Amino acid sequence: xxxxxxxxxxxxxxxxxxxxxAALRSPNACAQVVAGPAEPAAEPDGGDSSAPTYGxxxxxxxxxxxxxxxxxxFTAGLGTFPIPMDWPEQTVTxxxxxxxxxxxxxxxxxxxxxxxxxxxxxxxxxxxxxLDVLLNVRIDKRNIIAPTQTDSLVIPKRVPREMxxxxxxxxxxxxTHGKIRLLSRELAxxxxxxxxxxxxxxxxxxxxxxxxxxxxxxxxNASDALQDGKGDCEDMTSLFVALCRxxxxxxxxxxxxxxxxxxxxxxxxxGGEASGHWYPCQAAGTEQFGEMQEDRPILQKGDRFKIPEQxxxxxxVSEYFRCDRSGQASPSVKFVSEMQHSx
Length: 343
Prior knowledge:
Layout: E1 2-5, H1 8-16, E2 53-54, E3 58-69, E4 74-83, E5 90-100, E6 105-111, E7 115-125, E8 130-141, E9 144-145, E10 153-154, H2 178-190, H3 197-211, E11 213-214, H4 222-228, E12 230-231, H5 233-246, E13 251-256, E14 259-270, E15 273-280, E16 300-301, E17 320-325, E18 332-342
Parallel strand pairs: 11-12
Antiparallel strand pairs: 1-17, 2-9, 3-8, 3-18, 4-7, 4-17, 5-8, 6-7, 10-14, 13-14, 13-16, 14-15
Signal peptide: 1-31
Pfam families: Transglut_core
Keywords: Signal
């Protein structure tokens, strides 16, 4: 049995280098971002000035896939790799597929929580054969513009079942750790009676950026970044998410090539009915709160995924390959994540 789940940091770091002038290259998952000038705000649909709005779309052609060759015969081959999906700020269109070799299955599946995978099945592949599965996609990406009015936003009183995962622990986001709960209580004690939900999240954001110095290193729990006072974009994002969840504010991680950032969820109360929105912020890098000036595609949103081929819950959906092989040699698998062209 050949069986491998590929490193999340390998995937993100490899992807980050392919975006010329989009980010500073980092050997780890985190490339700090220098944002360009903010775009002028557009009028929100339906007059809801508390909702995020979006700038003009920029188009990028990307290729995702896998290339495989084998020195030995194998059976029951299965490869998976993440591919982008639609979000309010992103539209993904499959332009073409380049498939060669003994592929017996090619489909996509959505994982609960905000990720999509391509699934490649290979019933049998003989020694010295090769295989390519390449998906060419057009990604239209829009910058997110901060709301103009935030006073009416509130912390949700009732969270839908599908969003409850954004209130608890996730891998490396130990929201119930004693040190994180202690800081959460300190932040709550600093609030005054008229503190808005937006100001509550802003206080969390400022504290994370004040208390944790950006330092590249191996991934750690959010509580470790808090205790040591240093961490990279993943650590800082995890800590922000953990503190939001302690304040009953749904929050999640957003993954892009070479970087990640958090989103938080607040609701607008209007006529007795609540409608909610996700708002981004930049935990590490240039300050951005409630907005996001970012051209890189969203690979996935979330930090708690159950993948059918893996027993453990994972925070990021990475590439994967397995097969039943004869002999000691192993197939060679190269996963592809490359920007081809931008308009």
